[in-house]
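Field: sequence (string)
Field: structure_tokens (string)

Example rows 1 and 2, in order.
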Amino acid sequence: MAEPRELILRWLSRREYSRHALAQKLSVALPALSAAERQAALDDAAERGEQSDRRFAEALVRSRFAKGYGRQRILAELRQHQIEPSAVDTVLRDAESSETERCVEALTKWLRRQTRPTPEKAYRFLQGKGFNFSEAQHAVEQIFR
């Protein structure tokens, strides 16, 4: 039977995980492990610098920005991972990217695949990507002039 520390290190060697996600994975992989033992293993990984919710949040934000997602969608995903709101604000503030520019870029990329684009479809697409209405409106007006 694998030790909690070994499993955590194996998972983290592949990619970053939030503390919440690691706790879920541990409870599935080692169901006999008590909640206290699970928390102790997670505390140990955090103290050693092996697991960091901030590092996870930074990686997720970079990844989602690259995929053309907006701030609202990213915030929702970070909340699902139970990342502290103060850390979320810091990570998003530190990310050097204009929400409006990303919105226009996402819409431009989307338009390349469309045969009959309309402003209404563009608004729906941008909302689904997590951009707020004012940014979507600005992007749609800029492209559909």
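Row 2 begins here:
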Amino acid sequence: MNQHPEPQAAAEFPEPLPVFHEELEAQLSAMSYAGNGLAPAIVQDHETRDVLMLAWMNEAALRKTIETGHTWFWSRSRGEYWRKGDTSGDRQIVREIRYDCDCDCILVIVDQQGRGACHTGEWSCFFRTFKPVDVGITDHHGGARGATDHPPSATGAELA
């Protein structure tokens, strides 16, 4: 059950949004947003390659992020735009923005300033780890794993 209200797909940004050069406008037009007008935006640290957070962007938040060089998102719970760091001081300076092959997911590579990205004070929102018990868990190839085996993982360098 989703506890977040659905945002308005065309929620107006409180100030005029920029119009970019033709090539960038074509790229922005290619983006696909879910029925609620949002696309997931993964934020990754430029230096460490750590995945810092996942938030939601609509076209206006993406445009504002491109224009200002700071990350802007749509808050599903508050139903408003927010710029990372306005409350905490933990700002994100945009280094690069990528989008996936389906044009429906955004990757924002940033220089993270301050304590980190998570509202809990952690560097990354992904600080929790599932700890499976040894009851016949299989790895992604279908083979059994022992209690001391660890699943294959990619390092930040491999993800870059």
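free_text_note (row 2): The chain has a mean pLDDT of 83.
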